[in-house]
Each structure stands twice: as C-alpha cells, then as structure tokens.
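User: I'm writing a tutorial on reading structure tokens. Could you give me a worked example: one chain, its sequence, then its tokens, then a sentence or two explaining what the tokens reveal?
Assistant: Sure. Here is the example chain.
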Amino acid sequence: KVYKSKNNYLDINVIIPQIKGLNNNKQEKIINDKIIKWTQLWIGDAKGIADEYFKDNPSPLISYQLYARYKITNRDDIISFYIDYYQFTGGAHGITNRVAYNIDVATGNELKLEDIFKKDFLYKDVINNEISRQIKKDPDRYFTGKDGFNGINENQNFYIKNKKLVIYFELYEIAPYASGISEFVIPNKIIKENMKYYEVL
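And here are its predicted structure tokens:
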C-alpha cells in the first residue's frame, strides 16, 4: 500500500505491506487494518503539525520528510517483517521508528515474544543474560544505569531473521542516537530446545 504526496514543505513517500493468503481471513484483515491505522496516524500527526506551522511561515530549505519501507525477514511457520518509519522535521537528523510484526502462519495470530516459547521456559532470564553479555563486549555504545538496558519487557520488540531470534530496541531506548537501533541476535543453542516453532530456528 502506497502513500505518496509532495508540496513545498512536506514530502511523503511511504510503502507498507499488506498480507494475503493466510488461512484465517479475519486475522489477516485485523493485522492489515492495524498496519494501515498505525501508518495513517503517523502520517496524519506529522502532516497536521506541518500544515499548521507552514500556514504562517515560509517553506523550509529542506522539506519535512516522511519515508517508510518494509523488510520481510522470515516466511516459515512465522512470518516476520518490520517497517521502518523515518521522519525528518528539521534539526540535526531525522528519527526512525521500527515496527515489527510476527505472525503464526497456521492461526493468523500476531505473536508476542512469550508466545514463541514453551510455557515453563524462563525466556526473560536467558535473553536478559545474553543481551547483558553482548553489551559488556562493547559498553561504550550504550547508556548505563536506569537509562541503559534493564531487561526485556512484556511487549518486547523482536523478529526472526535467517533462522535467528533478533531482539531490538528503538533509538534512544538503551543507547544514544549514534548507536542506531540496537539489535541483539540470540544464539539458537540457548533457546532452540524451548521453542514452540521448531522449523523457525
């Protein structure tokens, strides 16, 4: 689905995915509608601010920008993909928000991180220990203390890529802007035996 428009102060160039072919048509529509709603709200918020500001001010030397593209990272038992939403509204740099979706092909349900593991597996402890280990290898990239990594949450961002689980954190969530979106690839050997989706990893 494409949203494109351009004027003297705002350039919108947004392409988002829509899912087709799931067995569960109802869930397919729910997810597609969710993607559209998030995107339209994001565009609407930025457009509203720009329209209001430039109604009484000259157009900027560099147009405000809304740019989005998606990447499919897994197509097996779980469909994984993410959309990177980039927004520039002046200043030193723009901001990218990454929104990932992980969908059970069999049921059409959108999955949370806990859903991909067996019930009694202490996945948070295992993943927290692994992320902490990786951070210690390059600590200067990350914030420390209460602003740094303090464990994954109930709605933790993740996706599956190349048969690996990837945990990620948004810009500024645990690290400065220069570090980018922080991603941690979790080794299969520490989680695979406790996965519900054996064909994924």
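What the tokens reveal: The radius of gyration is 19 Å. The chain has a mean pLDDT of 95.
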